[in-house]
Amino acid sequence: MGSYESVFDTTEQPQPSTIEKLFAFLQEHFHEYHEPNNLYSVLPIIYRCLQRNKNDTKATIDVGGPLLELLRQHKDNEDDFEIAIQITYQVLCTVIELDTQVFKLNGEMILFLTELTPTIQRKQLITKTVLCIQYYLKNFDQDYLIVKEVWNIVKQRASASMILIIADFEILVQMIDLLRESEHDIFNGPHFLATTKHLLNSDDRFERKCGRWLLKRSVHWLTNQISVAWMPKVNESVEISWLIYMTILESLEEEQTHLILPSLHNLNELRNSGTIQDDWLEILYSRLLKHSNVLVKRWAIEYFMSIFTSNDLSTEVLKQVLEISNSNYFYNHENYFLHRDHFAHFLSKISQLFYTLFGDINWQSVPMYTWLKCLNDQTKMNNAEPTYESLIQIASRVRALRNYNIREKAIDMMNKCFANELEKMSLKKYINFVEALYNPTDIFSQYDLLFNKPLDADLWEPETSFSERLLLILCSNVKELETALFSLLKFLQAIPKEQHGFLSFISFYIKDASKHTHIFLELYDLNLETLDTSDLSHVIDDFTKKLVWDTSNERQRVQAFYAAVTYYLNHFPKEACVKFEKTSAIVLNSSDLPPCTLSLFSTLINSAVHVNRWIIDQLIDQLQTVKGECIIQKIFWEIMVYINKNNDKGILEIYGEKLIANYPKCHLLYMSSIQMSNLLKMFDKNLLLSGNFVNGDPRIEAVFQYYEFGNQPDEAILRFLWLVALNAHGDKSYIKFLLDCHKECTKKKPRYYEHSREHRSKFRIACGIYILYEKLKGDDNILDEIWKILLNENNQPDVAFIYEHIVGYFEQRFEILLAYLQKMPALTASQQITVAVITNHFCLRDELLQLAQLKEIIQNLLPFVMGSNFQTRLYCQLILWNIMAKYDAIFNSDNQMHVLMQQLMQAIMSATNGNVDEHLKDVRLLPLRKSANDDFYFLKVITYVTCVPFDELYLGREMIVFEDAKLFEQCKENFLKKYNKKRANTSEIEDEHKKSDVNNSIQRKMNPVNNILTETDLITYSSANPASNMYVVASLIDKLPNLGGIARTCEVLGIKNFVINSKMHIEKPDFKNLRHEKDGIPASLLGMLDYIVEIPQSGNVRSLNVHVTAALFMWEYCKQHILSQAIN
Q: Where does the tRNA/rRNA methyltransferase SpoU type domain start and stop, copy by copy (predicted)?
């Protein structure tokens, strides 16, 4: 909104002399006003006409009637109506400026606009309309009669829950002070309360802003001794509580953590004060739980789970707590893991509502398993039992989990957690539960519970049916089903045959079923003894005739076929091995075979006399339809056994790539099943340099399985097998191949991030070179290449440590080491440390050096003991200490040298403040040699101490495997400190959170009090105040930080015109990087101050620069006190 002075010369345009002529003129030229310049040019005409009529007459002039007619005429077209609103706004502003007593504006126009507001689609047009309504009510409705009528219209179209419609939100916001004057009880009114609460909890940012405005007005009236029923009697503590409440709400509109967390630490005090009613607190809880900042979410979930139990929260808040906890982010063992103690407290009291809401969440795998695990760990005393419907819903959520391994564990947790409830279920309900919980590929193991249920007459329901889905679930674990055969047969005998349904087929999946032929003869009139000598086609026919009770049902016929095939394969006659091809044709030509049947068939390919190639092809193709990972791996293994048996026929080359391409999860099985010499061929450059690893949710799930279930990633074990193969079959040519891979990796990306693809690749290469050089030794050319890598590249610590170890322990050329020592003054600090560390290893290996060699080494290292670089200085001191400790006996043979070494050791002890032993707990300085019983001892130490990712290389590197466990644990701590790394289960959040706890600093933006309306393009012409906004011209300033600071100040003070000499400046970092005031004022200081002054701010910028803020306050003080005294 603003003022406007037309650029057109309006004196040449017609000047209507009367109100009637003015509105006739406006109607005649109305179509021209779609062009903004034409619309703006007519505003002075309106102003001058009204001014002329005011001067020429003393009678009351009616402008309301014509204005209402104009609005009515154009109400159906929003483009036209917007023009009419601009004209109305100009008329209102002009009348207010000239004389409200002379011009008549009736309230009918305002009621018309109020009625029309809900039909307007464009939000800004609603704002313009409300602005016109507000202008009229403030200046013409002195008795508040129209205000009351408008409010009644608004209330009548509110919802049944007393919440105003969206179009009326702005009317309420703009009229609140007028309503307070006309209806003194407005803040107690149900429409005001319901709408304010709705707005505060809205997902729309502007609506929340309106809600906070309404709440502020309420608090304002509260502090002025106005009675409000939902606020206790005014006193200082009540006022403070509501100010804290509003401050937290405002803070939650921010995105940056440091602007939010400090205010949240007052939430507990606010909750315990008792001055804020629960329904208002729930709004605050809801806003907190809905926040998008992950650090705020973490704070919120920790707060709610540690302060409340699940029984304490309302339905909506409890649901939000469960929803926010459904994020893998909170269960990351490599970063942050929500503490189990929070779950224990939160679940100490559980209601049926919890189970109902728990079943409503579409859970991810890791959060759901964690909740079920914690539920299982809780005592069931004094907690409500879940309803049957809740259990079914929760079971269906488990079934929908995508991660197979975690889902398997979650199923196990369901059976443990709700064991009592499952025990009490009737057979029919339990079958429904099983079908809700299990996929056909999941492993079912609760056979005893299922088969024993119908034996209790109280739990048996005759209408119970056994579906095909149940059959598939029960056949998922044939091995365990076999142990329940006796219970199964009793179960079948206890049920009328006509009710067996698809359960008729289950017994024939069990190998020992033939031992109970009399039962099957009795139940199904099926003589198994005669089938044992029949071929497969006869068995299929017999099963179809005896077991299919509805010949028109295709699914029954399919299941009869599967049962017959499974039974036949379980009792495959030896003489049929020579006819294996005929059997294979029947089996493999059927689609969707049960996984257990296909697995059974795969075992026969290694016992058959002859297996045609097409059988293997078909079996591999069929494998693609199998979904259970255990079954896939079993069949895959059988295929690999066959391939290895027939490798002389070139089958490995034929099927190798196809198997790996189609079944990447079986990569490990494939590699572990082929011969070691072949494994090296398959582990080619692509696999070595792929650096394959997962990120995001898949990684968190993999980490979770590793720490919770001990599941080692296949890729990590695969790389271990590769190292084993290297140790057994690698040669020098393979070392050169690895070095070429390293060079290729460096060429592509010389510098790389920790745990990046390049880091992973280089680490594997370094491990491979170490294993091979440990075995082969003696190739100086390879050592020269590694010297170059160490001194010319910037590699990650674990990679560099491995290469330093190789050179230090296998370099036999003392002259080469001495040459590098002599070059140290010309090297960088990191290169100097590398040479010094290699020297350390060189001196500490088993072979002893001569005194002359030691003197040369010490002579070259001594200058760096007092060097300028701290790390170089420290490492040289520690290395000299190691040398003197090992060669003490040799130094004793030379008195002069002995005295010098003693003095040097004392100096080093003094320089390190007596902490030499602590500094020596550095993996770079430890004399690590290959263990007598473990070829991978050194790599185990390196992977453990340097925290190599769990999925990179599995070497059994848990701390318990090391003899010097405490030493390596300390080395790990020192490594993490030195390289600024973090342990698992910690994150940057921890530091931010602790910082907030200690400082509790507050920074908030003070918005101008009346800054609530959305800006519009409404303008007005006024001769009394021709307008102009300030223009800040900074075209002569060339320092970007100064320009950025001025732009920031313009934004905060609402100055919209800023001139610079080049638009390119605004994209430069020095112009942008000005937001460093993030800590705010410590809350503890605020209570010690007599006064707190805030600068109202416009725009989006958070704050002024500190020195600009100080300058404003100093100027204001000088203006008020020093300059005023000087003038007086």
A: 1076-1115
